[in-house]
Amino acid sequence: MNKKELINSGKVKSVFTTDDDDKVIIEFRDDMTAGDGERKEVMNKKGAYNAVISAKIFKVLEENGVETQFIDLPEPDVMLARKLDMIPIEVIVRNIATGSLIRKYPIADGTRLEPPIVQMDFKADEYHDPMLNDSIIKALGIATQEEIDTLTEKALKINEVLKEFFADAGIILVDYKVEFGKDKDGNIILGDEISPDSCRLWDSETLDMLDKELFRKGKDDEVMEAYVEVYNRIIPDDEKVI
Ligand SMILES: Nc1ncnc2c1ncn2[C@@H]1O[C@H](COP(=O)(O)OP(=O)(O)O)[C@@H](O)[C@H]1O
Ligand SMILES: [Mg+2]
């Protein structure tokens, strides 16, 4: 499948149209950003690690009945995906309290959240991704109540599948963010990526961070080692392409 026109260049990925109107090519770049894109560095092969990890996770989700954008990974850093009309909501699921949750609310770092928290933030860097609620989402015309309920259900289903998937690799899924979009028939499908950029992942034994939080904390020299560790643990040897 050939790239045609660049339709969206975000902070870490570039999206291209293809010969097929229903498919896009998503190139995962080596950029790493924090603070709504205010700090940016280039990390060697980061795009490929995130693309391969995302592809693996999308395949696992598909096997468990969650529809995703994933079609193929023709190159380690290039994903062929279903073209979606993205919903500007970051759906966040939290199994353990940390990060912005403990900064904004009186809850101790590391508190187990049962049931998990589902949070929706407005995906808009210029507004610093403010938290939404159902009435705000409807007032902004972003989604209907039925769609909000679908997003919540899907995010929780993804959580159940991925908590177990990561646990099998000795990793705690602390929290994560997903983005959904609509296909041409209006079906809500999981898009974007699920990677150490968009998840908080802790080693089950040591509780060491294995995700982008290291970069947020300025530990730039440890970031890629963590991403490679996640890759090595979840990608079987016969599926390794990097
Ligand atoms: N399947 C898809 N079809 C169309 N656009 C997509 C798809 N998956 C992700 N996108 C969009 O691609 C853009 C680029 O990704 P990214 O670099 O992560 O951007 P951002 O900086 O906005 O988070 C994002 O706007 C994202 O919503
Ligand atoms: Mg993004």
TrEMBL record:
Catalytic activity: 5-amino-1-(5-phospho-D-ribosyl)imidazole-4-carboxylate + L-aspartate + ATP = (2S)-2-[5-amino-1-(5-phospho-beta-D-ribosyl)imidazole-4-carboxamido]succinate + ADP + phosphate + 2 H(+)
EC number: 6.3.2.6
UniProt domain SAICAR synthetase/ADE2 N-terminal: residue ranges: 7-233
UniProt KW keywords: ATP-binding, Ligase, Nucleotide-binding, Purine biosynthesis
Alphabetized Pfam families for the sequence: SAICAR_synt
Any one Gene Ontology BP term: 'de novo' IMP biosynthetic process
Superkingdom classification of source: Archaea
UniProt pathway annotation: Purine metabolism; IMP biosynthesis via de novo pathway; 5-amino-1-(5-phospho-D-ribosyl)imidazole-4-carboxamide from 5-amino-1-(5-phospho-D-ribosyl)imidazole-4-carboxylate: step 1/2
GO MF terms, alphabetically ordered: ATP binding; phosphoribosylaminoimidazolesuccinocarboxamide synthase activity
Enzyme class at the top of the EC tree: ligase
Keyword Methyltransferase: no
Matches recorded under Gene3D superfamilies: ATP-grasp fold, B domain, Phosphorylase Kinase, domain 1
Entries under HAMAP family matching the protein: SAICAR_synth (MF_00137)
Family: Belongs to the SAICAR synthetase family.
Protein name: Phosphoribosylaminoimidazole-succinocarboxamide synthase
